[in-house]
Amino acid sequence: MNLVSKLIIMIVSVSQSLLNPCEEEPLALTVAGALLYVFFFIEMVIKMSVRGVYKSQGSYLKNNWYKLDALILVAETMEYFLHAAGIHLGVCQVLRPLRLVSRDKHLRNLITTILKIFPMVMNILVLFVFVIFVFGLLGVQLWGGDLRNRCTLGEEVPSNYNLSPYFKFDLAETDPFICSVHTYGTQQCSHVPPFRDDGQVCLLQPPALYRNASPQTPAWMNYSDCVNWNLLYNVCRPVGPNPYMGSINFDNAGYAWITVFQVVTLEGWADIMYYVMDASSYWSFLFFILVTGFGAFIILNTCTVIIATHFSETLDEGRDEEDEIFVFVKNVGRVVIGWLGRFWSRNIRNREQTESSRSGRTERGQFFRLRRKLRDFVEGQFTWVMMITIILNVITMAVEHHNQPEMLTQALYVCNVIFTVLFVVELVLNLIVSQLSYFLKWENIFDFIIVIISNAVVGLSLVELSSGGGGMAPVFRVFRVVRFVKLLHFLPYLRRQLLVLKRTIKESASLCWLVLFFIYNFSVFGMTLFSCQFVSEDGNLIDDRKNFDSLLWAMVTVFQIMTQEDWNFVLYNAMASTSPFAALYFVVIIVLGNNILLNILVGIVVESFQAQPKEHESGDEAADPSADSNILTAPENGPETNLENTQDDVEPAENTPHNGFLRTIQPVRRWYREHENRSLFLFPPENK
Description:
Elements: H1 2-17, H2 27-51, H3 64-84, H4 91-95, H5 99-103, H6 105-143, E1 149-153, E2 196-197, E3 200-201, E4 233-238, H7 243-246, H8 253-264, H9 269-279, H10 285-317, H11 324-359, H12 361-379, H13 381-399, H14 406-434, H15 442-467, H16 473-477, H17 492-507, H18 509-530, H19 551-562, H20 567-577, H21 583-616, H22 620-623, H23 660-674
Antiparallel strand pairs: 1-4, 2-3
């Protein structure tokens, strides 16, 4: 039932959000939304009849997630009544995806974990809001109305000159010239640049400045016909709009809070500081140093530490069991692998008995001794060959560039063929040595796929070279660079960090779904608030990308706001097009999305590093996923059935040939252990 509900929610929500919000909703989707409402209403009635409404233990309204479903149904009911009254709010599109939370176990667990640490986060958020409010009030007292200062015309200037009431670089005033009414401001009206006529800098003074000149023969006519009319803007008054379409100022506590909040996010704060320095004083930069230092570096980092540490502790306490489907699939995989192992062992044993009855045990022992020597060669000297091959493969791919000579293209193609042949030889040798156990390691499966793709790429490259055109074949060669990870075998500490990264990616899967769910919901909410609103006075879009006119661009815009990259320009457009209260939408996205959700990833990383020593206490076998690689070749009835431990091929320990590769690197490893405490060593334990 939950699976059907999740599919219905996802299909209807995505289909409704893909529509153009500037147009009227089609009748088909309206009917689909009504059927969805009826479906979930019937589901609620069935669950209430089975569980009870409220009084009994485990009843419907005793479950908080069921309360959320009931609240969504109540909101949808109110939406239909308001729609019948001619009021369109679009609440349904925003609330319908929230039903997915109560039906997904991982989202519920993650949100529950976040709610457990929310009281601690709220304490630091209250302090964060209070600090911004204090700095905002200080800004109101210092610079209230100062960002409106403009250089205006003097009173002696005649009105028939048809000049702008104050100086501005362009009509849109994207970069306002803010002056200071005091002498200690960094920008005065005397700093207004000269007037330009067709690119020519005008230096002559206007006639209004020549009061003693004769009206019949003005003095300025004797010099040139290019007059610097900007000299008339010599009085600084608060007559202009505030910067960025009136969004940035310190005129009241609300606008000041938004301005200081933008400074704390470290996006566009330098421009605000320059405007304040122009209007007030050079020493205004001390205010912004305090805001960025105390707000951005201390309070926000404190919030990060609190979220990371408490989330790590809560995650350890609330770690649940694995999903039933995942456990079932894993058990089935183990059964299949065990069956394949028994089948392989039985098949080899039967073949062994047949061969022993025909040729005797001497030939069988020679076969296994030959196989063991081949394994020693593959794990020894041949490993060095493949490591050098991987490095050369990376170098040849890095040499390739645009407009390269044809001779270089041919040489790189030959090198690609040689590398592919070597990788195929390596694959064949590993399959001979390891047999089916080769596929028990994920890195071996990846190498197998890369070799198959490499052979296909060689064929496609040959076709593309013969046809003289480019194609997608070189793109697939990039995957071979990932084989460079094999070199981490020689860097144990870096390999350990890679295992931590692997664990972090695994643990953050649910968080990624929650972030995607967060982006989708706020995108739909943004489409409800700002769709088709970012329009200039002439009817054109203010920005054809940073808008909420479609689900695609809305999700991109919300993600951009979360990453705090140029989010302030979206804020300016929203406040200028709708209302100053639109800033609350952006504050919520940054606080919840960036300062909480994305910082939870830091908590997952901390938890992964804390669990790292536990994984390595039992040795390398706990960290090495290949420890189970002997399942297929495991004995069925005891050690006497092991194929490689027969009486004929077992040799004394002192006569067993040592691995040449390990014998070669033993001096290096010994020197490494003796000098691992040196601070300048490349990979010391202190840097892990």
